[in-house]
Amino acid sequence: MFFDEGPGFFSGLGNFFAGFPPVFAFFFTTILLIIISVVLYSIIKGVTTYTRNNAAERLSERARVLTKRTEVSGGSGNSRAYTNYYLTFEFEDGRRTEFEVRAEEYGLLVEGDEGTLTHQGTRYLGFERMTSPLRPSPYEQ
């Protein structure tokens, strides 16, 4: 038949596909290769981003918190929900960049906060708000 003709790609699998139609063997192998490719792509992309961020210069720039957003995944049935937190910053020259931040940072910052953003490539390192008050304290005369 299709895969039973002499040595070939499937000959090294022994009797694993014995008794299954050749079409099943083809689709099984194709799906397995797709899964392996996606995993390898994710690993390579993560290592590349990590390496690029490590090689980037650590910058501290004046910026303003432009927007905040969250992304929730999971949570169906009895599974746990995961939340990712993002802040978009606008720099003095008009550039905008979004960073993923920890929940604590997300909760402490408000849209419109201005200060100094420290980042390294696409890696968020911190944000120090300006300390000048927006309005005078009612206790000061």
* CATH architect. name of the largest domain: Beta Barrel
Helix content: 25-40%
Task: State the end-to-end distance.
Answer: 95 Å
The gross shape turns out to be: elongated
How many distinct domains?
Answer: 2
Return the CATH topology of the largest domain. Answer: OB fold (Dihydrolipoamide Acetyltransferase, E2P)
Please state how the strands of the largest beta sheet are arranged side by side.
Answer: 3-2-1-4-5
The parts where pLDDT drops under 50 for at least 5 residues are none
Report the order of strands and helices.
HEEEHEE
Q: Which percent range describes the beta-strand content?
A: 25-35%
Structure description:
There is one protein chain. This protein is α+β, with helices and mostly antiparallel strands and 141 residues long. It has two domains: 9-53; 58-129, OB fold (Dihydrolipoamide Acetyltransferase, E2P) (Beta Barrel). The protein has two helices and five strands, in the order H-E-E-E-H-E-E. A five-stranded antiparallel beta sheet has the order 3-2-1-4-5. The longest helix has 34 residues, at 22-55. The protein is elongated. The N and C termini lie far apart (95 Å). The mean pLDDT is 86. Keywords: Membrane, Transmembrane, Transmembrane helix. The chain crosses the membrane at residues 20-44. Pfam families: DUF2500. This is DUF2500 domain-containing protein.
